Amino acid sequence: MLEIGEGLNESEYFEIFSAEQALKDDDLSYDEIVAGIVDGGGDGGVDSAYVFINDRIYNEDIDISSLKRNTTLRFVLIQSKTTSGFSEESMNKLIASANDLFDLNKEISQLTSVYNRELLQTVERFRSIYLALASKFPTISFEYFSAAKSTNVHPNVERKVADLKSAIERLFNPVVFNFKFLNTSALLASARRAPATTSTLRLAETPISTGQEGFVCLVAIKDFLPFITDEDGHIRAHLFEGNVRDYQGQTEVNKEIRNSLETAAAEDFWWLNNGVSIICTNASLSGKTLTIEDAEIVNGLQTSREIYHTLHGKDLSSEARNIMLRILKPQTAESRDRIIKATNSQTPIPAASLRATDKIHRDIEEYLYSKGYFYDRRKNYYKNIGKPIKKIVSIPFVAQSVMACALSDPANARARPSSLIKNNDTYVKVFSPSYPLDIFWKCPVIVQAVETELKRSDIPEHRSHSNNLRFYVATLWTLRACGVPKPTINQVAAVDLTQLTSTSIISAINDTFAAYIELGATDQVAKGTALGPKLRDEHKQSFIAAQAAKKERNI
User: Fold this and answer.
1) What does the pLDDT read at residue 212?
2) DSSP assignment of 83-125, as one string?
3) Do residue 397 and residue 461 come from a single domain?
4) d(CA 19, CA 182)
5) Whether 534 and 505 share a structural domain
6) Residue 245 pLDDT
7) Which pLDDT tens digit goes with each residue over 459-489?
8) Which of 81, 194, 217, 464 is the most exposed place for a label (fewest CB within 10 A)?
9) Are 48 and 174 members of one domain?
10) Dihedral through CA 210, CA 213, CA 216, CA 218, nearest 10?
11) Does one domain contain both 25 and 94?
């Protein structure tokens, strides 16, 4: 654990650790966990907060208007205390903040003097999604976790859970409410339990096997449903990380799948459906039971989701239909990627959706490894083998860092993290094979250093606006480090990282913050088109003035 928490203090590590355990089966990356941390002054007793839509962590690129009925909206709030016990005071804070934050009659603007910016942004996100979906009657759930270094919970503290539940149920109806205390025993038990990697499937018939590490088989739908859900009835999101598309909602194809599930027909379901493709690290057959390690559903997410939405929670004792599965054990990473591409080529998919398998990402992974960093090309691979949190960098983060530092475009880095990969034209600009590999190392290092200075700044506004400022500060720092108005890719790649000092970063923070304040200091400013050009223009003017002064001195 010491290696994993390298560079973090005790409180920072415990927040990440407890959130990781609370959300164990959601299999979030460290980037996603850290993004949900909202602690500090005015946190209302909440240290981390996460919004899930259909059991997927919310991101800014999700089109809420495309969501249909049967949507699940889950808000997870985590309290993480390094103190030796659970307290009534901490519970009272959660009750008070729930009465404020989730009362839709109270405007967010009325709460800014009480709660911090990060918490209010997450709550506002939840509110806006809920209101947008209200007419479609989504399933709403609140999950609270309280983690502390304690062995037991005092009855007076436990009694407060009922008060918190009453507060939530007064504000939302119907609603699912869950609360769990994570004491030292629960935390350690969770830490020792990896997200389920070994699963069993009971087969309807003896499978076909060519002896080349693969099986084709029929599985009863009522046996497939437990395979894709966890013990709490949630979809096992990590199963679908290898699928190039997320759930597409009420498309015509999905409507047809659902209709075939809801309608009794002479044909078995597998006659009407292409089935599901699963890759794994190992698979063994015993009788009619298949044991699978590290399963990934790389094709068939839509079918799986429709089965879940249509049949979850229903009596399946008389359900006799089957689904066809292909279970494949690729021998190399290259083979795995070819399988993913091939099994997803039946319907049109933007080329950028498959980019994680491109050679450039393998090259980046190998190069960053040589520099002591771990490129999360295969989500959570390095997290699962215990590499340091601060040394793991995700594909979206690298894309944002390159966009900000190498391409001097912090607005797009801040506003559209996922579309940097999805949009083919943008993707080609960010992940060009012609770039020196140093670009993909130095840019993330610069942004990480900027983040560190923002979070430990003595100025509260710098800390509370860090998410909006970080890419702009990184852009300005890089421009100054290159010493030219508009640096080339090669000039950025050649930047000397010994210049990446607290003094130089703080100078860039101060100047960026001043421009940000001048334009209004809002999320719209950070995602807009004015702040980036303003910083670039001010840098250019400073460069011209410095050149003129230098010339005058030499006369």
Assistant:
1) 59
2) SSS--HHHHHHHHHHHHHHT-TTS-GGGGTTTS-HHHHHHHHH
3) yes
4) 10
5) yes
6) 59
7) 999 999 999 999 999 999 999 999 999 999 9
8) 194
9) yes
10) 130
11) yes
pLDDT (mean) for 83-91: 88
- The mean per-residue pLDDT over the stretch 305-320 comes to 90
Angle at 116 between CA 114 and CA 119, to 5 degrees: 115
The residue segments making up the domain with residue 276 are: 198-349
Q: Average pLDDT, whole number, for the chain?
A: 88
Same domain, 370 and 435: yes
Q: Are 222 and 331 within one domain?
A: yes
- Contact, 229 vs 318, CB < 8 A? no
297 contacts 276 by C-beta, under 8 angstroms = yes
Encode 10-47: b = buried (16+ Cβ within 10 Å), e = exposed.
eebbbbbbbbbbbbbbbbbbbbbbbbbbbbeebbbbbb
Cα distance between residue 357 and residue 400, in whole Å? 19
Question: Is residue 4 in some structural domain?
Answer: no
Q: Which of 349, 370, 399 is the last residue of a domain?
A: 349
Place of tokens 């495309």: 66
d(CA 516, CA 471) in angstroms, rounded, equals 12
Handedness of CA 303, 60, 136, 70 (dihedral sign): positive
The dihedrals phi and psi of 6, each to the nearest 5 degrees, come to -55, 130
Site of tokens 């100054």: 480
Instruction: Please answer whether residues 219 and 323 qualify as being in contact, where contact means their C-beta atoms are separated by less than 8 angstroms.
Output: yes
pLDDT value at position 350? 41
Separation of alpha carbons 404 and 397, rounded Å: 11
Are 364 and 482 in a shared domain? yes
Closest CA to 78 of 129, 41, 43: 43
Number of domains in the chain: 3
Q: Are residues 180 and 219 both part of a single domain? A: no
pTM: 0.73
CATH value at residue 106: 3.40.91
> Which of 317, 349, 381 represents a domain boundary (last residue)?
349
**Between 139 and 2, the higher pLDDT residue:** 139
The string of DSSP letters for 2-30 reads TTTTTT--HHHHHHHHHHHHHTGGGT--H
Is residue 422 domain-resident? yes
Residue 248 has pLDDT above 70, yes or no: no
- pLDDT at position 348 is 43
Task: Judge whether 306 lies within some domain.
Answer: yes
Give kind and range of the element (H or E) at residue 383: helix 381-384
